[in-house]
Design a protein that fits this description.
Elements lengths: L1 E6 L10 H16 L2 E4 L1 H9 L9 E3 L7 H10 L11 E4 L10 H12 L4 E2 L2 H14 L18 E6 L4 H10 L1 H4 L4 E4 L1 H13 L10 E2 L7 H10 L5 E5 L9 H13 L5 E3 L2 H15 L2
Length: about 290
């Protein structure tokens, strides 16, 4: 597997930076998976200066961001004809107040990951959860240091879908109803929440009990309400099926939720496509048997 890797300066300019927290937790898993990492220049330099991933040949240095390093990752998410230049996704640890996080290449990296159904991992929690997910699919033993990401009975799950993706969210919830029902609580924005409740009641969920707590619709501030829960560490995992092909009148609210997730980088896991969400569910089932 090949992943792009980049981190804003906040996450690697001190010893306790998020990049190093991720690598300390997942270096063994990265090596087990033989995960190729196409790494933007400054991020690569920080890893080398910290003495991490020493001697790991699949760690490849790309140009600095100002020299087009992140742009190259975008092209590789789409897929290039040269061998070894098609990425399976990207890890981009974002500082929500760094202006470079909203440069065109940064936005395009996420958009192309969503379009192509590939993971876009913008938080430490998301990246750690993804490594454990891939370890499960590779048949490796459980990493007990990742147990907290799978303590669903203590977690709140947000289920959010743009209009064109609501059917995909309903299909996903129906397919994985038992797993999703294990969460302590589920929340959703208005219309999605209503349709999910109707699905749950049709499957025998008690009719007097909502399966999800409904917040406002997205245009009326539901994304902002969920963002507040993320910032309070009351919402631990968000499955957010985005439609990257349409303009959204409440784009600012959507970006607010995304910024909240990256602010809670060690605690919030975010999944942005049905393909990646299903792979996580399948990995969770595998993990439960080991």
């Amino acid at each position: 597997m090949l992943m792009g890797l980049a981190a804003n300066r906040l996450h690697h300019h001190t010893e306790d930076g998020a990049l190093f927290a991720f690598l300390r937790a997942c270096e063994a898993g990265i090596r087990e998976l033989r995960l190729g990492l196409h790494t933007v220049g400054r991020t690569h330099d920080a890893i080398a200066a910290a003495g991490m991933l020493q001697g790991y040949r699949p760690l490849v240095r790309y140009p600095y961001g100002r020299e087009g390093g992140l742009m190259k990752l975008v092209a590789e998410v789409v897929g290039m004809p040269e061998p070894g230049r098609t990425l399976d996704g990207a890890i981009y640890l974002i500082d929500p107040v760094d202006p470079s996080s909203i440069f065109p290449e940064a936005l395009a990296l996420k958009r192309q990951c969503v379009i192509h159904g590939k993971p876009f991992l913008s938080t430490v929690a998301s990246a750690r959860d993804w490594v454990e997910m891939e370890r499960m699919h590779a048949g490796l033993p459980v990493d007990r240091n990742a147990d907290r990401f799978h303590d669903y009975g203590a977690q709140t799950l947000a289920l959010i879908a743009h209009d064109a993706m609501k059917s995909a969210m309903l299909d996903f919830a129906a397919r994985n109803f038992e797993l999703l029902s294990r969460f302590r609580q589920r929340v959703a924005t208005g219309t999605t929440g209503q349709r999910l409740n109707e699905l749950a009641w049709a499957r025998g969920w008690p009719a007097d009990t909502p399966w999800v707590q409904r917040f406002n619709s997205g245009p009326l501030g539901g994304d902002a309400q969920i963002a507040d829960w993320v910032l309070q560490r009351r919402c631990h995992r968000a499955i957010f099926f985005e439609d990257p092909h349409v303009a959204r009148q409440h784009e600012a609210d959507i970006q607010l939720l995304e910024r909240a997730v990256t602010t809670a980088t060690h605690d919030a896991v975010c999944t942005t496509s049905p393909q990646v969400a299903q792979r996580w569910c399948d990995a969770a089932a595998l993990r439960a048997t080991r």
